[in-house]
Amino acid sequence: MIEAKDLRVTFKGKEVINTTFSTEGKCLLLGPNGSGKTTLLRAIAGVIPYKGSVSIDGQEVRNMRNMVYVSTNLPEAFTLGITMKDVIDLYSEIKDLDQSLLMGKLKDVGIDDLSKKVHELSTGQSILFRTAIATSTNSKLILIDEPFENVDLSKRKKVAIWIKESGEEGLVVTHELEMIHMFEDFRVLLILDGRTFGPVKAKDLISSVLVEGVDPSSVLTVEAYGRKFSFVKNREGIKVADSDSLERIFSRYL
Ligand SMILES: Nc1ncnc2c1ncn2[C@@H]1O[C@H](COP(=O)(O)OP(=O)(O)OP(=O)(O)O)[C@@H](O)[C@H]1O
């Protein structure tokens, strides 16, 4: 279980996260550009300082020494090693990496020449490499940032399956709203301007439309842009499932 209580992250005096939530199981973390998705993941992964509390299964992240049961594709976790093989060797030492599972994935997406230098990978190949490793450990918890960015449509389905098959809980960040269809059995945590809302069942969210104000029948009520909004089912309007971005959903009201 991930639990955040008054979790705050500040950059140069500007507070970019200020939130309280708890999640069980695997959740998509959805939010517009700059809403704080990556920062939240970094705080949970323990790679940036934070105020307040964030814990994994009751253990405060800032006090954790060896997060072997946490696996992430955040770039910070991959700065050691020059070649792909170096990174895999190091990861095998510090995490419980299933090398044959990993090699199957790398072959499947065409990046299995391990002598290649990590900095020579294209942007899409680099994210595929990091996500393949992060989803090939036996870690209980996964923290995956933008796994579909710069990744060909034909490979996105494979990556979604990697994620669905790895870990028991965690957060998967994406701003690609159409990918939500691959994760209908997940929950969704929304993040708007550093504040989280939910989690809510992905199935409920995608079949709802956004209305302004607090609606008692809503599946989720959020506060954003100084106003309150509700996601409601069985209502005329553009469903979340038919939109390509959260920004577009909210932009109707701004
Ligand atoms: N190292 C940093 N120094 C200063 N400001 C930062 C830093 N990292 C993030 N921010 C700011 O924090 C806010 C949240 O950024 P973050 O990268 O977490 O957003 P995001 O939701 O992941 O965005 P995107 O979808 O565009 O990747 C932004 O306003 C960003 O400018």
From TrEMBL:
UniProt-recorded Gene Ontology molecular function terms: ATP binding; ATP hydrolysis activity
A matching Pfam family: ABC_tran
Keywords, in A-Z order: ATP-binding, Nucleotide-binding
Gene3D superfamilies xref list: P-loop containing nucleotide triphosphate hydrolases
SUPFAM superfamilies in alphabetical order: P-loop containing nucleoside triphosphate hydrolases (SSF52540)
InterPro entries, sorted: AAA+_ATPase, ABC_transporter-like_ATP-bd, P-loop_NTPase
Membrane-crossing segments per the record: none
Sequence ranges assigned to domain ABC transporter in this UniProt record: 2-218
Protein's recorded name: ATP-binding cassette domain-containing protein
Native source organism of the sequence: Sulfuracidifex metallicus DSM 6482 = JCM 9184
